[in-house]
Amino acid sequence: MRAAERRRQLDAELLAHRDLWHPQPFREARPAWCERWPALTAALLALDDADVAHLNDDTPAALRWLAAYLPDVDVLLPLIDIPLAARVPPPVPGERWAWEIPGRKRSQIEAFAGAVQPGGEGVIDWCGGKGHLGRLLGLAWQQPVHTLEIDAALCGEGEQLARRIGLNHRFLERDALAVADWPRQGQHAVALHACGNLHRRLLEHGAGAGVSRFDVAPCCYYRGVETHYQPLVASGSLQLTRDDTRLAVTETVTATPRLTRQRDQGIAWKLAFTAWRAQVSDSPYKTFKPVPAPWLRGSFADFLARMAAREGLPPPEARHLASIEATGWQRQREVLRLSIPRHAFRRALELWLVLDLAQYLETCGYAHRLATFCDRHLTPRNLLLSAWRS
Ligand SMILES: C[S@@+](CC[C@H](N)C(=O)[O-])C[C@H]1O[C@@H](n2cnc3c(N)ncnc32)[C@H](O)[C@@H]1O
Question: What percentage of the chain carries pLDDT values higher than 90?
Fold first, then answer.
């Protein structure tokens, strides 16, 4: 399916169901859709913990489950089904290229490298950190590599790693948002998890500079978005707020039981705080600054006392602590359940954002292909947009 057509269909479906994915149950105890879809709300609230975990994690399963209550929602299934790229392991002898790369990161880099083909005179690895991806591609394709990276320490470490294997690999310690003379005409630009405005800048600037091929796995779409996402190519009437673009990347890979317990406790305590704040200050929901992680590892009493002091509220009374915490756990149970519909639209939102990039490259004279470069358990940000001069 062409990018424009897929995006048009996603646009229509996302608009039709906006009332389900836009409101945040963390902020609104009962989003308005609960009144419109009472049978769905009751069924969600009755789910057991195992089903909740499964439906929050598995988008196609959630869409199929929701289709019993929301007619037509499963038309999203073929629209979000993106094929796995054909993968050929890069021909690199030995292990020396991979010194010091943590296991999961290395697997992501190898999967990305196996899914892309050479397509230019030299490679530029955009926002490449220590240049692991560039180093692997330079070795596999026997091509000169440039890694552009803002962090001087990462550039220094990357240079050392390249020297140890005698690779023609230069580091450009630059700000991707300001650099004017990179990437260059004829280069092959690769970007693995360059955030929001960093990958958008690469495409906009690189297409103008005459990059011969792009292979981009985007992430953190909200980076560089102020209040609303500004599409590169106008399409339909969907408008995304910054929070909506953040929703596209809230999915995480299955955590260990310990991390899941910590996450659940964090949500419950924050919800306990917001419920208590609403009581003592009688004000509508407002956001609060991120909570320092150590505050969530001590006792509930300490957590609430710190939050109260930071937010300028009176100290909580000790005799009410147990019921305040119980309210938080009750809200946490509901939030996990009422978030299932919202989470079921995450991938559709992400695809809509990536198709905006694809359509932009089309308007600049590039052919393109969209694939996944690895299983989502290795990284949920597994979409690979490849584009070449047509
Ligand atoms: C998520 S990491 C990805 C690194 C690498 N591509 C990888 O997959 O290992 C994003 C990188 O972008 C770099 N970065 C952030 N802002 C930047 C900017 N304005 N210009 C250049 N690099 C930037 C960060 O320092 C970081 O190394």
Answer: 90
